[in-house]
Amino acid sequence: MATKRGSALLLLALGLTFTQCKNEAYQTQSTTDATATAPAAPAEKEYTYETAENDPLNARIYTLDNGLKVYLTDYEDAPRIQTYIAVRAGSKNDPADATGLAHYLEHMVFKGTTELGTADWEKEKAELAKVEQLYEQYRKTTDAAMRKKIYHQIDSVSGVAATYAIANEYDKATTAIGAKGTNAYTWVDQTVYVNDIPSNQLERWLELEADRFREMVPRLFHTELEAVYEEKNRTLDSDGRKVAEVINTELFPTHQYGTQTTIGTIEHLKNPSITAIKNYFNKYYVPNNMAIAMSGDIDFDETIRLIDQYWGGLQQQQVPGFTVAQEQPIQKPIVKEVLGPDAENVSIAYRTPGINTRDALVVQMISNLLYNGSAGLIDLNLNQQQKVLQSYAYDTPMKDYGTFRMTGMPREGQSLDQVRDLLLAQLDMIKKGQFEDELITAVVNNDKINTVQAYEDNQNRADAFVSAFIYDMPWQKYVSRPSEFAQITKQDVMEVANKYFNNNYVLVYKRTGKDPNAQKVEKPTITPVAVNRDAQSEYYKAFLAKEAAPLQPVFIDYSKDLVETKLKQDIPLIYTKNKDNGLFQLYYILDMGTNNDQKLGMAVNYLKYLGTDKYSAEELQKEFYKLGTSFDVFSSGDQVYVSLTGLDENFEQGLNLFESVLANPKPDQQALNDMVAGTLKAREDAKKNKGVILQQAMVNFAKYGKKNPFNTLLSEKELKAVKPQELVSIIKSIPTYEHRVLYYGPRETDALAAVLNESHRTPATLKPVPAEKVYAELDFKEPTVYWADYDMVQAEMLFLSKSVPYTKDIVPVVRLYNEYMGGIVFQDLRESKALAYSTYSFYSPAAKKGRANYLLSYIGAQADKLSEAMAGMQALLTEMPLADANFQNAQASLRNSISTERITKSGILFDYERAKRLGLNYDIRQDVYQSANTMTFDQLKEFQQKYIKAQPQAILVIGSKDKLNFKELEKYGKVKQLSLKELFGY
Predict the structure, then answer these.
(1) C-beta separation of 808 from 924 below 8 A
(2) Which segments does the entry list as coiled coil (predicted)?
(3) Which DSSP symbol is given to 793?
């Protein structure tokens, strides 16, 4: 799956989880809008809509005359609307000789229209036609010298065309109206466009979207193509992606799910066809193949009327049919190997039926019986008993077929074959029915809880619509799916498991080593193009001039929006009520952590492997899962969180069980031995993870020096010397220290306090928490380049600058700076120069009073482009360019965002916690909102000159030694290689 700004896999939240049931008829209703005009005026159009019985979303599903599907649900958590525009066309619809086309197109849809994004369409049109013809000539040419000559022409003509283009004008428009999360993703069956908009901007957004889906203009094509190259290179650096590609290729040797990837082959990436992309758009981007899905603060009648007004004129047309390739049964295990720098693991994958079959629903049940994070067979028999380092299972339903996969990571000295056998043994237990009947009931109940929780979020609500549409599932069938899920029996599970899970799997050994088949998409020669930051199309000017009814911000009033009271021993209870459903969240928070005692973190981790005087560890997990509750203990450097969440109807039972775990953990020497061995193996695996190396190890080294919070760890000798009773004593001591209780749930304060006073086990006098060990933050006295060697196609780097300690006075200008520079960096380094697929610069305020703020700037690019990318980033940080249009946009976005932000539910509690850590007693967003309109670019420039320009930097680089240009790196400071031993401390 690929996105406009990132290509990480976007998991289809809940839509792939609750999407199967009997095909029942819809209820059909209608609504006629009243009119206050004279009787002679024409009646407003009547819109019919479909609903579903027992629908938790109370959704209405409309179908416009042109076939456009519209899914609407009203959920007024904030004056915002989550929107998805879904197209039933993904990478499986790509032509076989032009894979990656759907994904290319996704990028192009953000480039504007014949009116938006252009300063002179007629002149630009002529140049774009030349570019299109040159690409057709280029892809048919095989002679290397001639191809190079043609690409030079493409680069030259594209530069001319760019002088008439206005880069990023669509993004500017969405930013100006306060949209958030503007993005898109392409996967096998779909392409989906994402926006979270203020509710008062609905009409402007609908007009803007209707215009961009009416026509597609492939402007700035060759620089965006370079971004796609970079996206491809990122996938080639991902061992997980390589494993997934092998699995799909072997499971689907005939179907497009396996014969072509979403991002496309290197050969096809190098030979794109703008003509083919246009044809694809014209075929599939038609209203009867699209849906608008919306959840948020909406008025049904007004919304459908506006959608029809702006989208009803789009013309429907026949959509090409898709013939599903029929895969032949796999007769014996297919064994493959993937090599790469990451830690080793083994995966077993099976082909399963498409999402609209009942068997797919049973496969989902099997997935949960094996792995649900608490009480599945893999959870209890492998993870909790520490027979493997880590393992999991999950199903991925798609329209035509699905996949089921189990993955395990070995312990020290354990072979991948041993892990394979353990995983297969758990699946064999499912096939034989060797699991408790009540586990099915528990899975069903927890599924219901997960559904309730998910539907508290507009993203999940709207995404449910997307799944129903993409998989051609009537809404009643979608809504009824949980009830059918609840009817699955043990016999169903056994029959389906034995039907699909035999010796017909793909087995992939992911081993650590150099990939002999490593590839990369070579960098073409690209001349930076003009971005015309201050130019504005006539369309854009008119768009901005349209008025929208203003929305007023709502800030948290801590004295009114939460209740503070005392429990026994003067324990603070901070409470806010859940008025929506019967779920609760309970937290005990201590202001002490691993900086105080490394064994505290070890004890917290040990707890999940322990039983009590009444229950074994396995029985405990089963009991919590049956109650629809879960407990967790988490430690950071300076805090410990102990949490209990779940069904309020089982609050007392869950709380008493929870308290017994803290009060009576039973020491287990074998569990400790296994945990220590697992910890040591996990430490070694972390040294093979580039994200951990750069984002954690190197950042901490730069901030604090050789001895820092990241690498201050118990040594192997110290770990092995720890006794079970030591850790049990630490666990028991947690409630004996001063702490506070946070609660979000449906109970009234007095009733809640009574239950907690009775069940929460504390001594008569609480001990004060010990003083925190504070790591001194280093001053960056001279520019230094730290680098770490890692076998990868790309290179990644961070510019890190230490700034002043946190002060609330600069928060407004910081928020505006980040809003402004986000667009500038993206425009310059990606849109204009095509130097990086992923890049950003962000001034990060401290999370705690007294700590320093930091500027963090990131680039991920081909190693041979890193020097150019670094120079580009440094130039932006040194001399922040003035772009009036971008600045006005940043102001409007900041104002619109804050006026429509609503911090609600348990978010109020944690916002209060954050404020206290920063020494604040009010919602800091008030200061930002009051300043947003009056701040000037001169103030922004002053901030940049004072806190960013010429500040000493630590530059952190990770990449392959034989690909990095060290002479270029030396221009930025003294170059020092950091070994993994220095970074990790072991």
Answers:
(1) yes
(2) 121-148
(3) S
Can you tell me the distance from the alpha carbon of 493 to that of 482, in angstroms, rounded to the nearest whole number? Answer: 16
SS3 call for 72: strand
Q: Which CATH number is 334-457+476-512's, of 3.30.450.40, 3.40.50.720, 3.30.830.10, 2.60.40.10?
A: 3.30.830.10
Computed over every residue of the chain, the mean pLDDT equals: 92
Packing angle between helix 475-485 and helix 458-470, nearest 10 degrees? 110
Q: Looking at the chain, which residues constitute the CATH 3.30.830.10 domain(s)?
A: 2-323, 334-457+476-512, 582-759, 784-984
Cα–Cα distance, 872 to 833 (Å, whole number): 9
What is the per-residue pLDDT for 42?
A: 56
Type of residue at 694: L
Q: Please write down the HEC assignment for all residues of 255-297.
A: CHHHHCCCCCCHHHHCCCCHHHHHHHHHHHCCHHHEEEEEEEC
Q: Taking the chain (986 residues) in consecutive chunks of 10 residues, what is each chunk's mean pLDDT? A: 34 30 35 41 82 97 98 95 98 95 95 96 97 95 94 94 94 92 96 97 97 95 82 85 96 98 90 95 98 98 97 96 96 97 97 98 98 96 97 97 98 97 98 97 95 96 98 97 97 98 98 85 76 90 91 96 96 96 96 93 95 95 95 93 96 97 96 97 96 97 96 96 97 97 96 97 95 90 94 92 95 95 88 81 94 95 86 92 88 92 96 97 96 92 92 94 93 95 96
Burial class (CB in 10 A: 0-12, 13-18, 19+), 744: buried
**In angstroms, rounded to a whole number, what is the distance separating the alpha carbons of residues 403 and 420?**
18
Whether the CA torsion 757, 762, 767, 772 is positive or negative: it is negative
- Give the burial class of 612: count Cβ atoms within 10 A of its Cβ; 0-12 exposed, 13-18 middle, 19 or more buried: middle
> Are the CB atoms for 221 and 231 separated by under 8 Å?
no
Pairwise CA distance, residues 99 & 93, whole Å: 9
Residue in this structure with the two tokens 């007769």, named with its chain if needed: 331
Tell me if residue 460 falls in helix, strand or coil.
Answer: helix
Report DSSP state, residue 433. T
Domain 784-984 fold: Cytochrome Bc1 Complex; Chain A, domain 1 (3.30.830)
How is domain 582-759 classified at the architecture level of CATH? 2-Layer Sandwich (3.30)
Q: What element of type H or E holds 742?
A: strand 740-745
Q: What is the pTM of this model?
A: 0.92
CATH code matching the domain that covers 2-323, chosen among 3.30.450.20, 3.40.1480.10, 3.50.50.60, 3.30.830.10? 3.30.830.10
807 contacts: CB under 8 Å, gap ≥ 6 = none
Encoded amino acid at 640, one letter: V
Q: 172 is written with which tokens?
A: 């500017």
Backbone angles phi, psi at 945, to 5 degrees: -65, -35
